[in-house]
Structures are given as C-alpha cells and as structure tokens.
Amino acid sequence: MRLGAVISTAGGLHHVFARAHEVGCDSLMLFTKNNRQWRADPITDEDLALWQQERAAHPDLWPLAGHASYLINVASPVDDLWQRSYRALKIEMERAMRLELPLLTFHPGSHTGAGEEVGLARIATALTRLLEELPASHTTLCLETMAGQGSNLGYRFEQLAWILAHTTGGERLGICYDPCHVFAAGYDLRTPESYAATMGSFDATIGLDRLLCFHLNDSKGTLGSQKDRHAQIGQGEIGLAGFSLLLGDPRFADHPAHLETPKFDTDEEGNEIDMDPINLSTLRSLLPEDQHG
Fold first, then answer.
1. What pLDDT was estimated at residue 55?
2. Cis link prior to 59 (omega < 30° from 0)?
3. Of the residues 122, 156, 230, 258, which is catalytic?
4. What does 10-36 look like in DSSP terms, one character per residue?
C-alpha cells in the first residue's frame, strides 16, 4: 500500500509535500480548505504555481487525495442545508480538480430523523446533479464507509451500493474504506475468516473494483458499537492482526491508505509524541516482505 497521513496545509497548500516527506509518507491526504468552515478562499494562480512546483519536486509522493468538509450533509431533509451542502461539495470537487487530485473523499451524510430511504435519495439526487454539472475529470469522488453513529448513512455496504446504483453517472464514483468505521458498523476484520467474509460481502454488494482508497484507523469502539472513535494503530479493538490482514491483501498493494489517527500522544513523563511516524512504522512492519521499501 501507498501509506501516508493527513497533512497540515498551514501557511499554504504547497507545504504539504515537504511535511509529508518529513513524516515518511508515500502518499498524502489534505483538506484544501478549513474542514470545519463553509468558507473557502479561492486557489489563486500563485497558489497553484507553488503547488505544482512542490509537487514536481516530490515525485515520490503519490497518489494525492483530498477530503471534503465535515459540514457537508447532502442527506439532509432540510432544503436550505441541502443546498448549502451541495454547493460546498461542488466547490470541494472544483478545488480538487484544479489541484489535479485523483481522489476526493466525503461523508455521505445523515438523514437527521427523516429516515434511511429519504436520506439515501437525497444523496443520490445531489451526486447526480454534481456529475451532470461537472465535466468528467481525473478526480474521482469517493463515498466513505461510515460507522453508523447517530443517523449517519453509508455504514452498511447495501446503502453505499444503493447510492451508486441510483446516481446517474454513478460509475464515476468510488469508495473510501475506513476499517475503524467498518468494524464499528459490525463487520469483523480480526481473523482470516472474518476478514475474508467482510471483503467478500463488500465485493458481492459493491465490487472491490470500486474500492479506491483507505483511511487507516484502529477503533476505540467494540465490534458493532457504531461509535466513530479512532485509535492509534494496534491500540484499539481491531488490533495488529486485523491490519496485517488488510496490508497483506495483494488486491490492495498499490492503493493509497492514509492515517486519520490522533496526531499526538504523551509519554510517561508527559512529553508530546508525534504519532504519524510511529503509526506509519507500525503499518510498514505489517507489509509483506516484497513491499518493504
């Protein structure tokens, strides 16, 4: 796998490349704007030139992936919020296309009490409109597998398959697979048998060809807890055995996989520890011998 992490864009988008290199990433993921605000400053020609310059200087960092704002909810039954979310998702896609990011992941959304059928239909309506209004590009929009917390949708493989099937142009969409979310949603990954069953279910319901990228997080919540709580790799309920099965799966040998684990921890003396390099090292120790770089 092409292992990486979410990299800070503080001071400018172009800084992600040097920072990712320092951490030891093969790949990287970024938010192209503040992920907890609706507002988005435009990507200027100067921003783009600096981005392209740094990208060319770091050819070993690939593929690049974006993540859309957490505020977006195109499953919302409230028209004003749906419209605002749709506009925000479209802007996120336009920004990813301008930066030539091959992947952009977003959370499908929450029905907030309106019911699963209503929420799924609202998502499909938004994605159909988005794909109609935006030209085909090298950027693929990926729905993320979710934990099922609250009224979140996308935590069952059947829900994601329904969205893909009922979106006009849905063949242009992909899936981002988060093992923490999948595990919290009730799909076990910890033994060869349960891992094979979960991946077999994904393949039969959605198709492994639609799985384009991963987020790598252990789970603080137990199997089926529907709690979206990320843990450091090997320190949660999935454990190293589950991640070893995933990283050893030859079907995903070239897929990008990005940490969303807590950035910092503290040692026994209370000193702050940067966890991205530690988690990346742990993951690399689980890779098959022929994939160690």
1. 98
2. no
3. 230
4. TT-GGGHHHHHHHHT-SEEEE-SS-TT
Contact residues for 6 (Cβ-Cβ < 8 A; gap 6+): 28, 29, 30, 31, 67, 258, 259, 260
CA distances from 85 to 31, 92, 161, 178 (A): 16, 10, 22, 22
- Which of 2, 14, 95, 107 is labelled catalytic? 107
How many Å from the N-terminal Cα to the C-terminal Cα in the chain? 11
Catalytic residue at 228? yes
- Whether residue 107 lies in the annotated active site: yes
**H helical segments located in the chain:** 16-23, 45-57, 79-98, 116-133, 157-166, 179-184, 192-205, 239-247, 275-286
Q: Return d(Cα 73, Cα 82) in angstroms, integer.
A: 7
| Annotation marks residue 92 as catalytic | no
pLDDT in tens, 121-148: 999 999 999 999 999 999 999 999 999 9
* Residues listed for the chain: 293
Known catalytic residue: 237?
no
Fold of 2-291: TIM Barrel (3.20.20)
Distances (CA, A) of 180 to 27, 59, 100, 221: 20, 30, 28, 8
pTM comes to: 0.96
